[in-house]
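The data layer described in this paper is built around a simple, fixed record for each protein. Such a record has a labelled line for the sequence and another for the backbone structure tokens. For reference, a complete record is included directly beneath this paragraph.
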Amino acid sequence: MAKFLAEVTVAVHILALLLIGFGGFIAWRWPKLIYVHLLGVAWGVLVNVAPVPCPFTALENFFRHQQGLGDLPGGFNAYYLYGTVFPQSWLPAIGVVAIAVVVYSYVGVYHRWRHRDHEDARTHRVRLG
């Protein structure tokens, strides 16, 4: 059971990383999701900048210990991403691209919200007129 729960934790962790990276685009469709996304981004920055442990990594380590395994060597990113999904040497470029993607998604959210306000006003005038 611990192995299954560890695998579920990895899947949720990956989904959380995707939400942090692409949540702004999802907010183009569901604008209120931007608040969940912003919390995720803030948590992601905190975990990577301050000595705050990631709860998903801690949970996976707990389930690994239940199986008689040790902690993830180097943490979640080092174990699952660096050298597997992309070389660690690409990390600085990936960081810049990630920031650019998030900023672009926020610009899109802003424009969609602004456009939505104009659409609502136009629709309201049509109904009254």
About this structure: The chain has a mean pLDDT of 87. Helices lie at 2-29, 33-49, 55-66, 76-81, 91-128.
